[in-house]
Amino acid sequence: MIINNYEGSIKEEIDISGLSQGVYFVTLQNGPKQHIMKVVVK
């Protein structure tokens, strides 16, 4: 799964194949900015 933040300046690749069902929160750091992203695995 490839994730872009709002500005599109971060490209994070997250491997969710090992996660069980649930809701996860991922923090992306972009210099002084932090973006919290919600990932739902069904």
Structural domain count: 1
The helicity comes to under 10%
Largest sheet: 2 strands, antiparallel
Computed Rg: 11 Å
Average pLDDT score: 72
Number of helical runs?
A: 0
Strand order, biggest sheet? 1-2
Order of helices and strands: EEEE
What is the number of strand segments? 4
Q: What fraction of the residues are assigned to beta strands by DSSP?
A: over 45%
* Main structural class: mainly beta
Could you tell me how far the N terminus lies from the C terminus, measured between alpha carbons in angstroms?
A: 14 Å
Weakly predicted, low-confidence segments: none
Any idea what the shape is? elongated
In short:
This protein is mainly β and 42 residues long.
Q: Layout of helices and strands, plus pairs?
A:
Layout: E1 2-4, E2 11-13, E3 22-30, E4 33-41
Antiparallel strand pairs: 1-2, 3-4
Describe this structure in words.
This protein has 42 residues and is mostly beta strands. The protein has one domain (2-41). Helix content is 0%, strand content 57%. It contains no helices and four strands. The protein has strands at 2-4, 11-13, 22-30, 33-41. The strands form two sheets. The chain has a two-stranded antiparallel sheet with strand order 1-2. It has a two-stranded antiparallel ribbon with strand order 3-4. It is elongated and about 30 Å long. The model has no long low-confidence stretch (mean pLDDT 72).
Annotation keywords:
elongated, mainly beta, 57% strand, 42 residues, 4 strands, two-stranded antiparallel ribbon, single chain
